[in-house]
Amino acid sequence: MNVAIIGASGYTGLELIKILITHPKFNISYIANSTGEENVQELHPSLKDVLNIEVSKVNAKEVSEVADLAFLALPHKTSMSFAKQLLELNVKVVDLSADYRLELDTYEEHYCSHEDKEHIKDSVYGLPEYYKNSIKTSKLVANPGCYPTASLLALLPFVDYIEEGTPIFIDAKSGVSGAGKKLSEISHFVNLNDNCHAYNPFKHRHMPEIEEKVKLLKDKEFQINFVPHLLPVTRGMLVSIFATLKDEVNVEDILEDSYIDSEFVRVRNTPVNLKSVAGTNFCDVYVARNKKALFINSSIDNLLRGASSQAVVNANIMSGYDENLGIPKIAYVP
User: Fold this and answer.
1) Which CATH number do you get for residue 260?
2) Same domain, 177 and 139
3) Bond before 334 cis per omega within 30 degrees
4) Does the annotation count 146 as an active-site position?
5) How many CB atoms lie within 10 A of CB 134?
6) Which of 112, 146, 196, 283 is an active site residue?
7) Most CB atoms closer than 10 Å: which of 73, 76, 197, 238?
8) Model pTM score
9) One domain for residues 98 and 183
10) How many domains does the chain contain in total?
11) How far apart are CA 160 and CA 158, in angstroms?
């Protein structure tokens, strides 16, 4: 199947290219960004003598002539206009932005007015462990954010056991690649090196995404308090969740049973770390309790399970392939 990568300039675009180059079923037939007029080897020098393809200035009609499915690695607010055009041209879409992840009212409250109200209601949230059957028949999959992926995979097995009316606290830490390529004060080397800090506590846009999916999947509302931090590492995400249980249940068995058939969730018996998942699509999860106090710990590669490899898993499912086809499993260790 021919596929297109639109928004190839950033880190997630590069990770998509790296996965799809060796994919046994997908063939990269079109790569684009906002400017074009260069080879992908100039755009990403690491691809020299690996891939030789011209980068086009994105054009939806051109995509529809050479590809059956498109990955949109574009910024929020930009992606929706291209997705709309592609869907009308019968091209399947996996969107890595936030433009189709949320219910319309939630999106417009936290982002902007939506330009594609027709398709947002038909989009499927691309968390395969919980939406696989819907993904199979979808033409538009909204790839989850990195923080929500790590948080939801850890939290969802326990929602039914958490005391209603009690707050849930999520402490999340991400590698700096999650901030993208654009230069900023917070990601400047001299500010980040040997340093760590919280940002947007209780105000981050991923908090309503987590709250909404908990409500939709479990029909329960909780006060979720989400605080992200920036780590002085290139890639990786570590999430710690704190909540109060209704009863002193066997949390280890609950976690094991929840993911016994899941290809890419690994239950750990010790707290998780970044290096064991870096370079892979795995989410590692650990759980412990002290009487009714619950602690859940998860880790992912923010660029892969939090973006590009999860997008390819979704494309596999949409295309009728095994979900693990071409998906990276070997961690960058040491």
Assistant:
1) 3.30.360.10
2) no
3) yes
4) yes
5) 14
6) 146
7) 73
8) 0.96
9) no
10) 2
11) 6
